[in-house]
Amino acid sequence: MLALLKDVPIINHPGPGIGLAERSGRADGDPRLLLADEPTGNLDSVTGTEVFDLLFGLYRERGLTLLLATHDPAVAARCERLIEMRDGEIISDRVAGPGDRRRRA
């Protein structure tokens, strides 16, 4: 996992704060699952797009499973499967068709 994170600018940023091992959850080996819970919630649109391009690139290039939580319809439109929740309950679970995705990884 640490090898995957070397390309993420914030992970390599020198300075005080949480270290690389803590940010990566002390993961080792060859990860197959990447979890992202609102990864761009506090970012500007340009940086947010860069982060999503990185996540979807890892999904595509390394064959990772990407589990992504988002409130952004534009981000959801890039996903192959959409599970929508309301009040803690699943209200829909569908595989997105070609017309449902504007830009796929």
What are the salient characteristics of this protein?
105 residues, alpha+beta, Rossmann fold, two-stranded parallel ribbon, two-stranded antiparallel ribbon, 5 helices, 4 strands, 32% helix, globular
Task: Kindly describe this structure.
This protein folds into 2 domains: about 1-25, no CATH class; about 30-100, P-loop containing nucleotide triphosphate hydrolases (Rossmann fold, 3-Layer(aba) Sandwich), CATH 3.40.50. Helices cover about 30% and strands about 20% of the residues. It starts with a helix and ends in a 10-residue tail after the last strand. The strands form 2 sheets. The protein has a two-stranded parallel sheet. It has helices at about 1-5, 10, 20-25, 45-60, 75, and strands spanning about 35, 65-70, 80-85, 90-95. The radius of gyration is 15 Å and the shape is globular. The chain is an alpha+beta fold and about 100 residues long. Residues about 10-20 and about 100-105 have low confidence and may be disordered. Strand 3 and strand 4 (about 90-95) form a beta hairpin.
At a glance:
The protein is of the alpha+beta class and 105 residues long. The protein folds into 2 domains: 1-25, no CATH class; 32-100, P-loop containing nucleotide triphosphate hydrolases (Rossmann fold, 3-Layer(aba) Sandwich), CATH 3.40.50.300.
The chain-level structural class is alpha+beta
Q: What is the CA–CA distance across the termini?
A: 20 Å
User: Average pLDDT across residues?
Assistant: 74
Strand content: 15-25%
**Low-pLDDT segments, ≥5 res:** 11-18, 101-105
